[in-house]
Design goal:
alpha+beta; Phosphorylase Kinase, domain 1; Transferase(Phosphotransferase), domain 1; globular; PH-like_dom_sf
């Protein structure tokens, strides 16, 4: 059966291997985009190639400045869920816009008409690849179409604020179609959870890559990522949208080494005044104007990108050695941060960082203006700069999985010693768990033999924010004696973050001690805040006191004669 033609026309296409440009007759059908070498082959239906409309999207393409002249050429790109990107040039601006609109409309129409083919029953979960503030993220397969996707499972049963944030994320992501922004596909309400189906990025987050490979990025890598991020932000800015949580953990790398912005859970539609007043984001990356709540515009993301440059170059953002609450006080009051070793980096990168980290938001350039920075004239593609690093991180990730799988199947887990003493006989058991990388201690008293099981966390593919994957382990120990005894078990997590403390079901005192420790730490922070507040308020209080005393003296001097004895 012959399909109806939605649009056809001559388009110049860039070759996939040799990058040569050849004219092709493109034909848009309801289910595919086919291209032919000439009209004769079109009449014979002898296709040179085709792009399935399912999962296809089109967007304008800005060609990098090169020695070649691109004047009078109207570039756009057609990219597919499989990762293939087609760079093409149309005959006019009107024709380019028409192609982009019709390709995107046809693709969306196809998805809606065939939505039942992508039902929950078709989803096959492969593995959990992360955990973030909003729940877990899993790698999954649509069995009917063989598409690999990422599914974020978010609990929605109690907190209305969380639902509101989720609805915001979904509404924004639905309308975002750009090569440097993670694609959103579908949502499913599953009783107490919402499933958000997104584009799968197998390279993981930049934060994850840096930590897995235990390295920082070089200048070429940083420049290529910044350019990709700026192109994504420029696209958002045209739609009066901002991200508000730019950081290495929210920049993902696809299997094809394309850098993409993700995690729009805190994104916002900028109001008519183009100012927001809510404090949302991650403290270390926050622009000063956001912390001060004086209102901020689209270039708030530019500050966060500047901090991300430092994060990529040095492994972490500035001020991470102090508590986030203290960082919030310091960011607006300290000078803008710079590289620890400025001479290590080119003048161009130092200047780019300086422009991003202008403390006055009015002096901070937009994403479009920054894309004109001279440093991007020598910018390489992320595929050129990241191919080896991503492959290395994938190998390390697989090794870690095998290592943890091996540990899971072994009869012992973690590291630690248990000692018991006393007299008597009997039996007892304890259960402990540890989170992150750190050490935890449990103490138990009992008699006879007991069983202890522990669990620990490992790093895995980043997906938006810092993520972990649980791997269970168990060990058994036995002993005999009489009376009562006590034992201490010390275990350490494997390549996690932070410190975890283990509890057992008999350890009420240990739990109380931990809560007391947390309370003390909180009180310490509150006292520090109060102390700083008092330091600022003391001069004001003194002035107020002096003024009141002066007023009191004046009042006394005016009325005292009436009551004085002669």
């Amino acid at each position: 059966m012959t399909q109806s033609i939605i649009k056809q026309g001559w388009i110049t296409k860039q070759g996939g291997s040799f990058k040569s440009w050849k004219k092709r007759l493109f034909v848009l059908y309801p289910t595919k985009i086919a291209y032919f070498t000439n009209k004769k082959n079109f009449q014979k239906r002898n296709e040179k190639g085709q792009i399935p409309i399912q999962g296809a999207r089109a967007a304008e393409y800005t060609w990098e400045k090169t020695k070649r002249s691109h004047k009078g050429k109207f570039y756009f790109q057609i990219y597919h869920d499989t990762g293939r990107v087609y760079i093409v040039s149309s005959t006019s601006e009107i024709d380019r816009k028409d192609w982009i609109t019709k390709i995107n409309t046809t693709s969306e129409k196809f998805r809606k008409q065939n939505k039942q083919k992508y039902g929950v029953g078709d989803i096959q979960f492969l593995e959990e690849i992360g955990r973030g503030a909003f729940g877990s993220v899993s790698k999954a397969l649509y069995s009917s179409t063989k598409e690999i996707v990422a599914i974020k499972k978010v609990p929605i049963d109690e907190n209305d604020d969380e639902i509101e944030e989720l609805v915001k994320e979904i509404a924004i992501m639905k309308n975002l179609i750009n090569p440097n922004i993670v694609r959103y596909y579908d949502t499913y309400f599953m009783e107490t959870h919402l499933w958000i189906v997104m584009e799968y990025c197998g390279g993981g987050s930049l934060d994850d890559i840096i930590k897995l490979t235990k390295t920082t990025l070089n200048e070429d890598q940083i420049i290529s990522v910044v350019k990709s991020a700026l192109e994504g932000l420029a696209y958002l800015n045209k739609k009066n949208k901002m991200h508000r949580d730019i950081k290495a953990g929210n920049i993902l790398m696809s299997d094809e080494c394309v850098a993409k912005l993700t995690d729009f859970g805190v994104s916002a539609q900028v109001t008519e005044s183009k100012k927001r007043n809510t404090v949302i984001g991650t403290p270390y990356w926050m622009p000063p104007e956001m912390i001060q709540e004086v209102g901020y515009g689209l270039n708030g993301d530019i500050w966060s990108l500047g901090i991300t440059i430092l994060e990529m170059a040095e492994g972490e953002p500035p001020l991470t050695n102090i508590h986030p609450m203290r960082a919030i006080f310091l960011i607006p009051n300290r000078p803008a941060p710079t590289f620890k070793e400025p001479k290590k980096w080119s003048k161009g990168l130092n200047d780019l960082l300086k422009q991003c980290l202008q403390k006055d938001p009015d002096l901070r350039p937009t994403a479009d203006k920054l894309l004109l920075h001279p440093i991007f004239k020598r910018c390489k593609s992320t595929k050129q700069t990241f191919s080896e690093l991503i492959e290395k991180s994938k190998i390390l990730r697989e090794k870690k999985k095998k290592k943890n799988k091996k540990k899971k199947n072994s009869s012992s887990s973690g590291s630690g010693t248990t000692s018991t003493s006393g007299s008597g006989s009997g039996s007892g058991s304890e259960t402990s768990s540890g989170t992150g990388s750190g050490t935890g201690t449990t103490s138990s008293s009992g008699t006879g033999s007991g069983t202890t099981s522990s669990s620990e966390n490992e790093d895995n593919v980043g997906y938006g924010t810092t993520v972990i994957k649980k791997v269970s382990k168990s060990r058994t120990s036995s002993g005999s004696g009489s009376g009562t005894g006590s034992g201490t078990t010390s275990s350490s997590g494997d390549n996690g973050y932070g410190y975890g403390t283990t509890y057992n079901e008999l350890g009420e005192m240990e739990l109380k001690s931990l809560l007391l420790m947390i309370k003390k730490q909180m009180n310490k922070e509150i006292n520090l805040i109060n102390e700083r507040f008092n330091q600022k308020m003391d001069p004001i209080r003194i002035l107020i006191k002096q003024k009141k005393e002066k007023e009191k003296k004046l009042t006394t001097s005016q009325w005292s004669p009436l009551y004085s004895k002669k």
